[in-house]
Amino acid sequence: MTNHHRKTIAAIGSGLLGAMLCYRAPAADAGVAHPAAPAVDPAVLARIREAAMNSDWAFRHLTDLADGIGARLSGSPQLVSAVIQVAELMRSLGAQVALQPVKVPHWVRGEEQAELVNFPGGPAGATQRLQLTALGGSSATPAKGLTARVIVVNDFDELKARSQEVRGNIVLFESRFDQQLADNGYASQAYQQAGMYRFNGPSAAAALGAAAALVRSIGGANFRLPHTGLTRWKDGQAPIPAAALATEDADLITRLAASGPVTMKLILTPQTLPDADSNNVIADWPGRERPAEYVVVSGHLDSWDLATGATDDGVGVIGAAAVIEVMRQLNLHPRRTIRFVGWTNEENGGRGNQAYFDSVSKTIDTQAAAIESDDGAGRSLGVGAAVTNDSLTMLQPVLRALAPIGATVLSHHDDELGSDIAPLQEAGVPGFAPLVDSRHYFDYHHTAADTLDKVDPLSFKTQVATMAVLAYYLAELPEPLPRFKISP
Amino acid sequence: MTNHHRKTIAAIGSGLLGAMLCYRAPAADAGVAHPAAPAVDPAVLARIREAAMNSDWAFRHLTDLADGIGARLSGSPQLVSAVIQVAELMRSLGAQVALQPVKVPHWVRGEEQAELVNFPGGPAGATQRLQLTALGGSSATPAKGLTARVIVVNDFDELKARSQEVRGNIVLFESRFDQQLADNGYASQAYQQAGMYRFNGPSAAAALGAAAALVRSIGGANFRLPHTGLTRWKDGQAPIPAAALATEDADLITRLAASGPVTMKLILTPQTLPDADSNNVIADWPGRERPAEYVVVSGHLDSWDLATGATDDGVGVIGAAAVIEVMRQLNLHPRRTIRFVGWTNEENGGRGNQAYFDSVSKTIDTQAAAIESDDGAGRSLGVGAAVTNDSLTMLQPVLRALAPIGATVLSHHDDELGSDIAPLQEAGVPGFAPLVDSRHYFDYHHTAADTLDKVDPLSFKTQVATMAVLAYYLAELPEPLPRFKISP
Fold this sequence. Notes:
Two copies of one chain form a homodimer.
Chain A: E1 8-11, H1 14-17, H2 42-53, H3 57-68, H4 77-92, E2 96-108, E3 112-118, E4 128-130, E5 132-134, E6 146-153, H5 156-161, E7 170-173, H6 179-183, H7 187-207, E8 212-216, E9 242-245, H8 247-257, E10 263-268, E11 271-285, E12 290-300, H9 310-330, E13 336-343, H10 351-360, E14 367-372, E15 380-386, H11 389-394, H12 396-402, E16 409-412, H13 422-426, E17 431-436, H14 441-444, H15 457-476
Parallel strand pairs in A: 6-7, 7-8, 8-9, 12-13, 12-14, 14-17, 15-16
Antiparallel strand pairs in A: 1-16, 2-11, 3-4, 3-10, 5-9, 6-10, 11-13, 15-17
Helix pairs in contact in A: 2-9, 2-12, 2-15, 3-9, 9-15, 12-15
């Protein structure tokens, strides 16, 4: 999952690099014979970049996770296996590993079937099978299904205008993913725009007495592939059956409903079981001078259940692990501790990040910075940073070290860079993410097609290089970057 | 389905058109004051082209078929409805409609589930769900499934080399679709290359005692979408369970099998029921001079069961119907009869084309030409023709009439231009098809994603224009084109 959006972009053209050699403000008086020595040795940053680009360690271990374990939704035995596998991997690197206990929601998908049983133009008795998948948090229909009319609405305003028609019926939110926005580099915004209907649409429909709610699948591809994801209920609200409908089927119903009533039979049998035991995997690579200050580098261990979660978030969690591997390989111990966190339960609860935040909130100043990778497997274009304006100059050596691999953009944010580091960011911790090509991330995100073949090994290396250079740099700086609070 | 492949291409660059004004060979003596008058009025061909390009009749009726009826596999009530709908449509145009009775196979898909239950690296008890779909003609597993080792082979040679391992196991043919070939305009060849494993692989595996056979899905997209299609058994051979596996899952098993044994549990419960009643829809638009000579223009009524068959072959059968609509609109009756045929049972039997051929085989000379459209919904690039070499010149006025819409290529074939007209072609009837952009046809072909949104209305119009100009021209020529026999 990804939530953040950029507010401004500071693009570092190669022609500008010469002017940005020093990350510190130039001395007020001119005529200095030698520019100030850089606080972090650029040669070390270059070695880190090259080590990441020359290693297939991350792709091999991503393969172990995605192929060898597969889907790993909270509560599943596969997520337990993933915790064990990743903890063992971090121990094998010599990191100091702790498993932080977390109780996680345990929702399990059941049967999912839908068909149109009455529609304009359809011959008597004709049915049309639909492709859908339950949303996390959906309740179940009766085992034999429910049959009701479909009310198609484009947005919340139309839901409100047609609220008298909703009771006992199935609401379909025909909320479109703006692929053109995504193609322009604003994939997260496109996701947020359509995603608010997945997050909040079923709850709004339930409040009006709907029997069930469907959302048009959020994504840019047209292969009749429904995208799952979490839907949210108000406190105390009874969930209703909720599912994402393949875009083709949403289109079909919208076309048919323009001519007359459309009736659907819907079967969804998910279950919400008692909370399950899980863990964040925390692995520290101790700092040589300030071991009690931490630069967090992270991705999430859990995935949705429809596929092997290679891109969401296999590349994130294994890419973060690979930062430690690069440090081990080069025998580098920067000033501060680099702390790998493999988050549990990012997808349907966020219990992992809450547990971690609770454990550090009283010593929040020990958290120098937090990096999260959860934007898919695309090539790194640079760094996203939620930091003070003045910090941008401080980050130029990172971009300079990454320029040879084309990661040249510093994107300035004032919101979360990843849902797991959001609580840290809200408490003032500078937040970061690799800035990746996400134009086609939402083709596959939360679908059955999020599989290993979607990861280009070279692009993955650029993400590891970005995180490794950034993490080392942030951990090595003489003083940490200034605090920067985002709004919740 | 599409089977034909081109052997040579005669590209008509616009610069050549001036030299090709006359479709007849120039007179032996030079110095003719007036070139011979064209046998078919180019102004009429232009009017036909424009009428097709300015009409949304075809797209509207394609919508009725795809949305209003949906999937229409042989034996289904939906195919019965499609016969009725299309026959009524042709009557409404004033054509003379006959329903030709055809007994068709009646195979129905059942449950389809598969999972890996044992694989290298997998934690104890871990399973991985796979995406597959039964092939037409597959038999059923036991209701509770069969569990067996997967033997991955790349081709028939490897199957032979490993024949001792096959008995009681599941053979997976890892036969790859060559998208690069498709991207270069050779989609049919790419389909044939991979398709021979779908057609013949399960039979070959059954002959060696395999418990079941899987083929890597034939297609160029990577959205975990299995492609169904027919598989063939030898006379008297007992079918085994056979399915197409999503390419991602074929990749996964191939990777895992390189490290150790992979065991799959497979449930497929299709049934083969007694043959069902169906019809070819035959609708004649009578010729003004030679009504007992026919130019067949055709597509198939049936589709696979996973989607609404908008491209396979909604565009073909409705596009062919639209040829008659253009004639009606312009009040044109060429010399010969234009005969619309909506074939039944193209996908899994070919009984429709056999019934038609049987009905005309004794009067085969009445069949002046046969056009079939079954290559998807792409833009028309011109005309594919299985004709004598000398006939190519005769066809230039058609290309000239189509040049304004970019349909400029005359592709010369010596094999079938469509499986339904193949028997006619084998008996000497010149065969034709619109030459369409099929680079991405096999992304969707035989999948759940063959839906109306895959049809670009403008591209569809270019196909109708191509068929209408070609059909009128062939029906209007003073003498029919020479016979041209393809090999069976």
